[in-house]
Design a protein that fits this description.
Number of domains: 2
Strand content: 15-25%
Number of helices: 13
CATH superfamily of the largest domain: Endonuclease Chain A
Structural class: alpha+beta
Mean pLDDT: 93
Shape: globular
Distance between the termini: 57 Å
Radius of gyration: 23 Å
CATH class of the largest domain: Alpha Beta
Largest sheet: 9 strands, mixed
CATH topology of the largest domain: Endonuclease, Chain A
Helix content: 25-40%
Strand order of the largest sheet: 1-10-18-17-16-11-12-15-19
Low-confidence stretches: none
CATH architecture of the largest domain: 2-Layer Sandwich
Length: 487
């Protein structure tokens, strides 16, 4: 009698499942390690910096107990928009009014920037305006964006980033999605599922599937001409209404570095098939060197990680490193910080407690487990005093014993997704004399938030959010390693 365990139908099923699992493994692995699209993962050459300005947004508790929000960044962006004559290029991750309510004290940043762009485009027929953004603003095609449609109607070129060409941080899901479901397309009129972002509008199944790939064009940059010169701005801030009270930082600069920044955005446009959206101008003539302004370079993707680790590793005994970070999770960065502490470097690490996310309460992962790890290594850690908003800055400042100070800031959190060639990110790396006004402004920004200067309440002691849970620590380690996370 034939053994039922060896029925041909059962063998066929096992073979088919094996082939499917093998295909899943191959596709998932390939898209984690495939070559990067051209023009991404770059470090531009060091060039002389010019007209460098540090900008910041901060929300804190005043001495009288009231919450105060001081904002500089999008006022500066509006000035850049108003001054543009030939070319204006913006790359912004969040550009929407999701979860933003003016009655809650939110500033309508998306409407303000939309109005400024439309007015400038209509008043200047010779101006080419391009906005590069992420599909999250249409919830991956499941809704219409009023802001983006208004910009298109005014003649602004709107480029939605083709995320499929990027590597996949979440291989367990993305390998399966690429095999079975990537051909699905969302129709905004057919949504029937809860919307994870725009809660007043329904979402589609396809949108949820794309969201679970957990990757983005996370850049925040602006480049504009200004007469015969060019001006660039790199920031951690989004024109997103519900983010308008977040703490953020930015660096604005002119000269050759602005054109280097523009070249990285040309690559971003090319990635999504918009090669003709704008042309790169010729580099300006003239000698831009000024020893008092230092030197600057633009970094994207994994080159940001390389610079961050190099800054930490070169800090020596008696020197200081200041780090303000929304998400800190990358193991190479964390180990470099611990080694710096062992060398005698004084570290001050200011972290968001990962408690608030647009009206929702979070688990504290990854910052609270990481904060405990750093605290046990003898590193000073404080928490931002948040009240619904986020401590969204991404800043690393090296105070050398002698020689120039060094500032790294931009869009990138210090996590695997942000630093290992999955998200699109842009930071600037600037070296300048410690007494440069912009370097001093960056130093004051951190000192004020760390020390609660002027009787203001910007930060809280480590014990307020200390978390020694082994379960949450190893959960963070698993999430960071696998990409099964939103950070």
């Amino acid at each position: 009698m034939r053994n039922s365990r060896y029925r041909p139908g059962k063998r066929t099923l096992i073979v088919m499942l094996s082939i499917g699992l093998l295909a899943w493994l191959i596709v998932g692995t390939w898209h984690v390690y495939k070559p990067m699209p051209g023009g991404l993962d770059v470090a531009t050459p060091w060039v002389p910096a010019e007209d460098v300005t540090f900008l910041a947004d901060a929300t804190y508790t005043a001495p009288d107990g009231k919450r105060v929000s001081d904002q500089q960044i999008f006022d500066a962006v509006s000035n850049m928009v108003a001054g543009a004559r030939e070319l204006l290029v913006l790359d912004m991750f969040l550009f929407n009014d999701f979860a933003g309510d003016a009655s809650d004290g939110h500033r309508p940043l998306s409407a303000e920037l939309t109005k400024a762009l439309v007015e400038q485009q209509r008043s200047n027929a010779d101006l080419t305006t391009v906005l590069i953004t992420d599909p999250v603003n249409t919830v991956y095609g499941s809704i219409e964006s009023n802001q983006l449609e208004r910009l298109r109607s005014a003649g602004v070129g709107v480029i939605t980033t083709d995320l499929e060409r990027l590597r996949d941080p979440n291989a367990l899901w993305s390998g399966l999605w690429r095999l079975c479901c990537r051909w699905l397309e969302s129709d905004p009129a057919t949504g029937w599922l809860p919307n994870p972002l725009a809660t007043d509008r329904a979402s589609t199944l396809d949108a949820w599937m794309r969201l679970l790939n957990f990757k983005a064009n996370h850049r925040k940059t602006v480049i504009a001409d200004r007469g015969d010169d060019w001006i660039g701005l790199v920031t951690s801030a989004n024109p997103h209404d519900a983010s308008s009270r977040h703490g953020n930082v930015a660096l604005r600069f002119t000269g050759p570095a602005a054109l280097d920044l523009l070249s990285t955005e040309k690559a971003a446009a090319n990635l999504s098939g918009a090669e003709r959206s704008f042309t790169l101008p010729s580099p300006p003539r003239g000698d831009y060197f000024d020893v008092n302004e230092g030197r600057l370079r633009v970094l994207t993707e994994a080159r940001i990680r390389e610079a961050a680790v190099a800054i930490i590793e070169t800090a020596d005994d008696g020197e200081r490193l200041d780090l303000a970070m929304f998400y800190l999770a990358h193991r190479e960065v964390i180990e470099a910080l611990k080694r710096a502490a062992e060398r005698g470097v004084r570290l001050r690490v200011l972290l968001d407690p990962n408690h608030d996310a647009f009206g929702r309460t979070k688990s504290g992962i990854p910052n609270r487990p990481v904060g405990m790890e750093l605290n046990r290594a003898g590193i000073e850690v404080r928490w931002c005093n948040t009240n619904g908003e986020q401590c969204h800055s991404k800043l690393l400042l090296h105070h050398a014993a002698d020689g120039p100070a060094r500032l790294l800031l931009g869009s990138a959190n210090f996590t695997r997704r942000n630093l290992d060639n999955f998200n699109m990110e842009t930071n600037v790396d600037w070296q300048a004399p410690a007494d440069h006004p912009a370097m001093q402004a960056a130093n004051r920004f951190f000192d004020t938030r760390w020390s609660n200067d002027n009787s203001e309440r910007h930060s809280l002691p480590f014990d307020d959010f200390a978390d020694d849970s082994s379960w949450r620590y190893w959960r963070y380690r698993l999430m960071e390693a696998t990409g099964l996370s939103t950070f």
